Amino acid sequence: MKKKAVFSAEKQKENKPATEKNMSKKGLQLSEEYFQAYGVDMLKKMQIKYPELQGMIAAGLAGQGSECFGFDDSYSQDHDFGPAFCIWLPENLYRKYAKPLQEAYENLPKEFAGYPARNVTVHAQERVGVLCIEDFYYRLTGKEGIPENNLEWIRIPESGLSTAVNGKIFLDELGEFTRIKEGLLKYYPEDVRLKKIVARAAGMAQSGQYNYARMMRRGEYTAAFLAVSEFIKNACSMVHLLNRRYTPFYKWMHRSLKDMKILPEVYDLIAQLSVAPCQSDAWKEVKEEDLIYGLNLKDGRVVLMETIAQLVIKELHRQELSDVQDSYLDHHTFVMMKKIKDPVISSLQILEG
C-alpha cells in the first residue's frame, strides 16, 4: 500500500501543470518567448552551417492544439503543452535538412520560464518541431496550397481550415507559409459561403424547428436530445459563416462564438440550451396538429432554439441573403439557393456543404 501511494504521488507531480505564479501564461506567448530566447539564435547558426537555408525558414506556432487558437487555460497544461514552436520549410529543403534541424531543435532547453518540458501524447506527434509547409496544409485541408475552385473549397472541412489559419507566425523569410495562410484567411468564395449557409439553415430547421418537437411528442427523448445537438452544431457553424470565420473542431466551436462581432448573443443562448433539462412534462397535453409549424412555448428548449433561429433570420435579412418574411428557416433556403451563380455549387443537395 505504501509503495502504491508513493507511485500515485509521483504521477500527480509528473502531470502537474505549471505553478500558480505562471499558470496564466498562454501557450502562444510562451512559444514566442521561447523562440526569441533560443530559437532565433539556433536558426542563425543552422543557416551559417547550411547556407541554402538562408532566407527560406518560417517559424511560429499554428495547427492543432487549444493554444494555437488562444483557448488554452490551466486545464490545457496537463498534456501537449510546454515550451515549443514550429519550423516550416518548403518540401525540397525539408527533405534535405529536416533531420539536422530537428536535432538542433531537440537540443534546445526543455524547460523554460518555470514551465516543464512539453509532455507529448501519442495523438499529438509532429505538432511542433521541423515541419514541411506543403505537408502542414495538406494534412489539414487536403491541399498543399490555396484551393483553386469552388468545389475544392466546399469539400474542405471547416475545422481543417480553422486549424490551418490559427496561431501566430514569428518569422517567415521566404513568405510562402504566410502567402498560403493569407489566401485561406480571405475566406470562402461567396457562392461557397452561401451554399454552406443554406445547408446550416436547412439543418437548423430540420433538427430544431421540426424534428425536435416530433421526437418529444413521441417520447423519443434520446432522438430529441440528438436533434438539439444537431441544432447546436448547425447554429455554431451558421454564426461563424455569417461572421466570415471558419468553425473550429467541435470542442471549441461554442467557445469561439465569444469572439464574434455578429450575433454574439447566441453564445449565451446555446450555453442555456445545452444545460436545459428534458422537457417531457411540457408535451403531455400537446395535440398532433400543433407540432409541424406551431410552437410549444412550454418547452424551454423550443423557446431557446426558436430565439436563435429568429436572430439568424434577422441577420440573413441584414446581409441581404434572404428577403423572405417567414419564421421557418427552411423557407429561406430556396431564395438563397437562387443567388448561387456557380452551377456546380447550386446543383448540390440542399444539406450538402
How would the global form be characterised? Answer: elongated
Low-confidence stretches: 1-22
How much is the average pLDDT?
89
Rg on CA atoms, Å: 24 Å
Q: Structural class of the secondary structure composition?
A: mainly alpha
What characterizes the major β-sheet?
4 strands, mixed
User: Helicity level, as a percent range?
Assistant: 40-55%
Please count the beta strands (DSSP E, at least 2 residues each).
4
Overview features:
353 residues, mainly alpha, Four Helix Bundle (Hemerythrin (Met), subunit A), 2 domains, 4-stranded mixed β-sheet, 4 strands, 5% strand, disordered N terminus
Write up this protein.
The protein has 353 residues and is mainly alpha-helical. It folds into 2 domains: 20-185; 190-346, Four Helix Bundle (Hemerythrin (Met), subunit A), CATH 1.20.120. It has 15 helices and 4 strands. It has helices at 2-14, 27-49, 66-69, 91-106, 133-141, 150-155, 158-164, 176-185, 190-218, 221-242, 250-253, 266-275, 300-318, 330-338, 343-346, and strands at residues 58-61, 86-89, 129-132, 168-172. The protein has a 4-stranded mixed sheet, sandwiched between helices. Strand 2 (86-89), helix 4 and strand 3 form a beta-alpha-beta unit. Helix 9 runs antiparallel to helix 10, helix 9 (190-218) runs antiparallel to helix 13 and helix 12 runs antiparallel to helix 13. Mean pLDDT is 89; it is low at 1-22.
Secondary-structure topology with pairs:
Blueprint lengths: L1 H13 L12 H23 L8 E4 L4 H4 L16 E4 L1 H16 L22 E4 H9 L8 H6 L2 H7 L3 E5 L3 H10 L4 H29 L2 H22 L7 H4 L12 H10 L24 H19 L11 H9 L4 H4 L7
Parallel strand pairs: 2-3
Antiparallel strand pairs: 1-2, 1-4
